[in-house]
Structures are given as C-alpha cells and as structure tokens.
Design goal:
The complex is a heterodimer of chains A (432) and B (155). Chain A has 432 residues and is an alpha/beta fold. Chain A has 2 domains: 190 residues, Rossmann fold; 174 residues, 3-Layer(aba) Sandwich (Dimethylsulfoxide Reductase, domain 2), CATH 3.40.228.10. Chain A is 36% helix and 19% strand. Chain A has 17 helices and 19 strands. In chain A, the strands form 4 sheets. A 9-stranded mixed β-sheet of chain A has the order 5-4-17-16-15-6-7-13-14. In chain A, strands 10-9-8-11-12 form a 5-stranded parallel β-sheet. Chain A has a 3-stranded antiparallel β-sheet with strand order 1-2-3, covered by helices on one side. In chain A, a hairpin with a 5-residue loop joins β18 and β19. In chain A, α2 packs across α17. With 155 residues, chain B is an alpha+beta fold. Chain B contains 6 helices and 4 strands; from the N terminus they run ααβααββααβ. Chain B has a two-stranded antiparallel sheet with strand order 1-4. Chain B has a two-stranded antiparallel ribbon with strand order 2-3. Classes of the chains: A alpha/beta (432), B alpha+beta (155). Chains A and B meet through β3, α1 and α7 of A and α3 and β2 of B. The structure holds iron/sulfur cluster (4 copies). The site of one iron/sulfur cluster has 14 residues of chain B, from α3.
Amino acid sequence: MKRIPCTGCSLLCDDIIVRSDGLFIDEVIGACLKGKERFDQLSSSNRILSPMIKKNGVLEKCSWEDALEKTSEIIKSSSKPLLYGFSNVSCEAQLKGIELAKVVDGFIDSNSSICQGKVLNIAKNTGITLTTITEIINKADLIVLWGANAAESIPRLLNKILFSRGKFRMTGREIRTLIIIDPVKVASFNVMGVRDIALQIQPNKDLELIRVLKEECCVADSISSEGVAGLDRDDLKRLILNLSEAENGVIFIGQGVLRPQSESNLVGELLELVQMINTKQEKGRISLIMMGGHFNMAGFDHVALSTCGKNGGLQFDKHQLIDTDDNIVSKIDNEDFGCSIIVGTDPISHLPLSLSQKLATKPIIVVDNKKSATTSIADIVLPSAITGIEVPGTAYRLDQVPIELKTILNPPSNIPSDEELLTKIIDKINKS
Amino acid sequence: MELYKFLPKTNCKKCGKPTCMAFALDLLQGKVKIDDCPPLLEPKYKKQYDTLKELLGAEEGQKKELKIDVDDDLCDGCGICVTVCPVNARYCPPTLSGKAPDYPPEKHQLFQVKGGKCELLNLEYCRRLEAQGRERECRVCETYCPRKAIKIDYV
Ligand code: SF4
Ligand code: SF4
Ligand code: SF4
Ligand code: SF4
C-alpha cells in the first residue's frame, strides 16, 4: 500500500492510498469524489479500448495499423493541422505533441491559452509573485478566492489551504482570514467564519473593483459611501486593510477572472494591483495562484516555454517556429486549419457553439481514453492509457511545482501511453 | 455556552450558585438539575425550560443518543471534516497539513474519506461524548462542511 498522486484535478494530491489486487482497484482512500471518478475511469463503460475509424458516418473498430495509416493520410493531405488539448496528458506527451507539430508544420496550443496561460503571458511584462501550496499551509494568513469556485472545481483545496495547521500557523483555521470575491454564492461561502469577508460583487464588475483598489490601496478613506460594484464601503475597507497588512497573503484567481470572454486587461490590472500592494507593504507580500482545472494544465506552459520560449500558440512553418499572435480561438474562428488533432480534451462540449461548429467542419483525430462529444464526431479515435494510474509521467501542480506521477496497474494490452502514441504517429509520418 | 442561553440570566443566586453561567457549567456536567433553578419553573420561562429539557434529554430517563449523520448525496469527499475534527488532529498527524490520515485508521479516528465519500468511523471518541466543559460543545465538523452534509443530532 503506497501513497500516490491523484490526477483528478490540478491539485495533484499526493496522499491517496489505493488498494489493488493488480488487476482492479479495490479501494481509493483519501481522494475526493472527483478523484475517485478518475480512478473509476479505468473500468468505466465510457472507456475506449480499440482504435476506431469513421466509415459511412459511423465509427467502427479497426486495427492500429489502419488507424495510424489513415491518421498520417489525413494529416498529410490537409495543410495547416491544428493540435489542441494536452492539459490532461503528461509533460512527456506534451513534448511529443510539440515535436509532432514541428514535423507536420502545424499549430499547437493547449487549454491553458484560454485560461491561466493568459496570466503568464501578461506577466512577461509585469512580473508575478507566485507561491506554493506547502508555503501556504505553513505560512499563509490571508486567502482570497477571486472568481474561484474552489469547493466545486478543486474539492480538496480549501481543506489544504484553509484548515491545515502548518509549521508557523499551528492554530490553522483561526489565524487565516478568508475573503471570497464572487458574483454567485458558491459552496465555498459555507465555510466562512466571523472574521472572514464575503464580497458578492456584481457580475462583470471585477475591473471596476480592481481600479478602485489601485487608487485607494493603503488609504481607504475616499471610497464613496455607496461603495463599489455592489460592495459595501466598510467591507471594502476591511478588504484593503487585510490586503495591505497580510504577512503571507495569497490570491487564488479562478474562472471568474480567467474566463475566455473577460476584458483583456482584467488580468493585467490585477497583476499591477498585486505589485502595487507588494511595493507599499512592509510586513509581507501577496502572491498569486492560478486555478486551472485539468491536472497538467500548467505543464504545457512550462514545456512550451522551455523548448520554444513561448508558453502557447506555437506555429511551425518549414519545421521552424514562426511568430504569431494567434491562439486556439482565433485559429478556429478564422477557420485557419485543415484538420485537427485533439489530445485528451473535449472541445466540442467545452468551446462556445460557434467555434465547435467550425471545428467540426474539418476532419478530427482524437487521442483520448474516454468517449466524449468530440470522439462521437471524430474521423479517427485513438485510445491511450490513463496517465497517473496506468502509465507514469510528470505533471505540474497548480502552484507550478512538478509532481512525479506513479502507476498502479498495467494498461490494457494494445493501449499505448499518449507519449508512445504520438511517437508512433510521428514515425508513421516520417516514414511515408 | 449553549445551555446558558436558555437560563434566565438574571444571576439571582436562588440556585445557590453565584451566576447563571456557573449554574450552566454545573448543569452540563450533571451536578445540578434544571429544576434546581427556581425562576425557570415560572410560566414565563416555560419555553426555555422545555428547550433545556430537550437539550439535556439524556438525564430524564428517555435517554437521547448522540448521532452524527453524513449525507452521502451531498458529500463530495473534500476532507475538511477529517482535517478539522480535533480528535483526528490529535491522533492522526497527517491531517495537520490537510493530508489524508494513514490507513487502516487509528482507533480514535472519527472520519475518513473512502471511495470519494466521508465515512464516520466511530462516535465514541467524539468530543461531545468524551470531553469536559466547553470542548463538549464541539460542532466544528458540522459548521465547516461546505456541503452542509453533516448533521449533529440527539435521538
Ligand atoms: S482535489 Fe483533485 S487531486 Fe485532490 S483528490 Fe480531489 S480530484 Fe484528486
Ligand atoms: S437560580 Fe436560575 S436565574 Fe437564578 S442565578 Fe441560578 S440559574 Fe440564574
Ligand atoms: S466536510 Fe462535508 S463534504 Fe467534506 S468530506 Fe466531510 S462531510 Fe463530506
Ligand atoms: S463534533 Fe467535534 S469531536 Fe465530534 S466529530 Fe465533530 S468535530 Fe469531531
């Protein structure tokens, strides 16, 4: 019996105890429901166990030989392949994905570029203060959840950051102040104590709040008595006081701030605000953590950055990286692609309808371990093993710390890892 | 002090105690009975008297038993109860840093998350049965469950 990391979400809890007889998983102890579901995928009826090719509009099982042949055919016959996904696979597979994009002169992007990748991009100009979960457990005294639905998207996050008692925060919950800024009363509001502040902001008024905070930071006297963005003046004063007095404050930014349609400068202004507070403040500092959902969303940014010097939206031409401002959304919107290779994600159900419709007009090749809306309309479906349970790898936790994933069982016969599968595709294309 | 809330709070000393608070503490430890507070028997305190009776039901022969219910449909296995329960904190060191306790469970351990759901292991070490004084009013698991899945009750 060993403790292994869970790949259910980006928190990658490394304390899960799994009992197994070598063929099946008997018991999962310590993982939340979301994590348990990840382990359940192993034997789920949703699992794909054979490659499939669409024939006369229906997906039919086929041999690996045929599937790879057809894959290479589609990629070669269409110009501008689009590679997308990669947030639910290991860093090793992400590296292979980039290699494939280079070989086929494609465009590659991960889910991160419409989520937390934006922050890193903007941070190139402004800088960013990050922190780690361990540091939060041991030292944090202020937790701000900004548009971050922690209790639902990352179930065990509050447990770790708010209720744990670290080395220098032995009293745990009592010494930590929680501030939630969210337009909806999400489940996290239920853990509020007397000293905590619930700020139910009016929808889409985040930018307004940030601007006021920037103006007022450290001098809270001139806030108008009506308050800002639907928030009470006294609450705002307490917010400012907490932000400027915290020894180790952390702001978790979630979908409310990162959402694709949010005003472009929202993240930028937030980063500036944090910097402003940190320059003025004498006691400590405020750090940021981005709450991506998929287990290795942060990984792609690191892999792309270290191999290509850019954290997403990589366009290759004549096997060279070329400069482009495109991201996955603009690429699909302009229908600037000939076919798509989707790895470990389900864009047909995640992307807005206008985009998913455009994506569906061109041939789709999917690499995944479970059926989804995207696999159902794909031209080729290539099954892969489940990372973190059947195959090992590296993944970056939400605080940008690399975690080594372990294996418990062997993958079903004939099912390769994402990394092996992408290597096979590259080989096939190079050979023919 | 849950019990104190329902006393007359006049500090009239008729019970022989210096304050209502002192009386409440003794009441909790079973040293005195509700009927030992004469003003409480007056009609205007009828409602409070009944509430107190209910809270202290156990003494009245119709023994009420502590029950902690975890609603499986609501629970999502976040593990907050495992971390905040002071009994777990004392006997299962990993919970201090928000980690899952060791397995198989330590004999005092009250909660564990298994199969994605919270499980109540044994009640006998719960502070509401074990501890003295204020600690006996522990309700942290119920208070901090973000799903409102835990209910502490006497039946
Ligand atoms: S919080 Fe995420 S990583 Fe942790 S157990 Fe749940 S799903 Fe797994
Ligand atoms: S007799 Fe009742 S009201 Fe008077 S001091 Fe005692 S508890 Fe309080
Ligand atoms: S705190 Fe509530 S939701 Fe979380 S594990 Fe315990 S019972 Fe379940
Ligand atoms: S009431 Fe207190 S001691 Fe009892 S189970 Fe809940 S947290 Fe633990």
